[in-house]
Amino acid sequence: MTDQGKAGSADPRHPMPVRDPAERITDFLEVARGWELDTARAEAGRCLLCPKPQCVPLCPAEIDIPGFIGKIAAGDISGAARILRASSSLPAVCGRVCPQETQCESTCVKGRRGEPVAIGRLERFAADYALFTEELPLSDPVPSSGRRVAVVGAGPAGITVAGDLVHLGHDVTIFEALHKPGGVLVYGIPEFRLPKEIVRREVAVIERLGVKLVTNFVVGRTATVDDLLCEYDAVFLGNGAGAPRFLGIPGENLNGVLAASEYLTRCNLMKAYEFPQAGTPIPHGKKVAVLGGGNVAMDAVRTALRLGAEEANILYRRSREEMPARVEEIEHAEEEGVQLRFLVNPVRIIGDERGWVSGLSCMRMELGEPDESGRRRPVVIPGSEFLVPADLVVVAIGQSANPVVASTATGVDVNRGGYFIADDEGHTTRPGVFAGGDIVTGAATVILAIGAGKMAARAMHRYLMGDRSWPERLDPRPEWAPRPTATKE
Questions:
Q1: Rounded CA gap, 421 and 423, in Å?
Q2: Distance between CA atoms of residues 432 and 284, nearest Å
């Protein structure tokens, strides 16, 4: 739901102040400014505090939504943060990037006759207040269980597992391949949507609780999963799905064609936008074409604008209604000058005599019957080929599973896509090894990875405390999970 809301709403929700588009495309500072206390309390006052809230069941992080909102309304912001922290290790992150409009806010009773309560913005407010006023409501220490857990990957799923298990008294160590923790939160999501200082502070909270963090540690190379099982009582695999995917069309090997994962990692993790002060360069295009229609595509095209693109285009083979990106991100992109070109499918990338991209040959599409993703299938219109000029092409059609971890995880089966086979509690095909997040479901959302982490943490706790029962047969894909082949275009 956008801030324009439903027509005639007698009790509209409070808008989120944002920076002027002309100003914000000149830097990488956060677009949304956040609320002041008075605005947050006024918005919290819109909540009906339902005795049987419909919002809570749709929150993968299992947050007591009326509980924390009620605390904000009463002015007890530390109390609100305490409720958030009881369920989530990443509330300030979720308040920024979780698609609340399709989750908790979609069933808000207020939304039946007007605008739903801005649950995500209230979560951001309370979490930020605690993080930046140093009023972090840490739980009391619990007795040690004597059990040790290794978590592979410091992304949303791994951070969640670690935070939940340390609260239960287990000794937890996270092994992260990169030099900074956060996973997709630091390499994939731009600073203007999720400041890296937020991620740093969120990770610092679980470290204060006792979680140990080891960076520059590539499981599968530095040590294997088998090695970890020799030292730890259980292992959680949350290494994500960061390998790039391409269209497989002619010209993808030309200079000036990049996967979105590389393009965004160079900017977000390695600060390429500060080159040469930062040591990582990045290609700058004047006419940039980004292929895809998901949040990653929006992040890439808005990054291109901030790097000086004069034209920044999204080429998407379906219509606006089928775009998987958040409505808010689409609107922000349009405000900043991004051109959205729908029902367009590239079939060939064209290069110049120097081997650099000069354009894309595209076909116009029309929508047919729905496919396995539930969206209408795009169908080529014969004879509709046309040219889109471009000197930089960013492919944002999803990611694949990186095989490095799986190659050394004896007895942990993967499916045809290379994703770990695990049930909805994270059990893999090897007792003692659990998995969750994108490395099981394929590229999905941060909040789904958090939800998978919570489910796995509960199952791991039972296992660590002596319940060694294990599923005899595992479905290659849990019923609740998105299909790995249905990537976020």
A1: 7
A2: 47
Residue 142: the pLDDT is 86
pLDDT tens for each residue of 92-104? 999 999 999 999 9
Where are the chain's structural domains? 21-132, 148-240+402-464, 246-397
Chain mean position to CA 37 = 27
| pTM > 0.90: yes or no | yes
Cis, peptide link before residue 276, omega less than 30° from 0:
yes
Alpha-helical segments (H) within 420-445: 438-441
Position 482 pLDDT exceeds 70: no
- Alpha carbons 217 and 430: distance in angstroms, whole number: 22
Q: Do domains 148-240+402-464 and 246-397 have the same CATH topology?
A: yes
**CATH 3.50.50.60 is held by the domain 246-397:** yes
CB-count burial class (<10 Å; 0-12, 13-18, 19+) for 212: middle
CB contact set of 228 (below 8 Å; sequence gap of 6+) = 150, 152, 175, 219, 235
Longest dimension (CA), the chain: 71
Residue-wise pLDDT for 181-214, tens only, equals 999 999 999 999 999 999 999 999 999 999 999 9
SS3 content of the chain, % helix, strand, coil (to 5): 35, 15, 50
In the chain, DSSP finds a helix count (H) and a strand count (E) of 15, 16
Q: Provide the CB-side half-sphere exposure for 338 (13 A, CA).
A: 31
State the chain's mean pLDDT as an integer: 92
Selecting from 1.10.1060.10, 2.10.50.10, 3.30.70.1660, 3.100.10.10, what CATH number does the domain 21-132 have? 1.10.1060.10
Q: What would the pLDDT profile of 114-170 be if each residue is shown by its tens digit?
A: 999 999 999 999 999 988 886 666 677 789 999 999 999 999 999 999 999 999 999
- What gap in Å lies between CA 392 and CA 386, rounded to an integer? 18
Enumerate residues 6+ apart whose C-beta is below 8 A from 145: 168, 169, 170, 171, 464, 465
CATH fit for domain 148-240+402-464, picks 3.50.50.60, 3.40.190.10, 1.10.260.40, 3.30.479.20: 3.50.50.60
421 phi/psi in degrees, rounded to 5: -85, 120
| Adjacency order of strands within the sheet including 433-435 | 212-214, 171-175, 148-152, 234-237, 433-435
- How far is Cα of residue 247 from the mean position of the Cα atoms in its chain? 22
98, exposed or middle or buried, with CB in 10 Å at 0-12, 13-18, 19+? buried
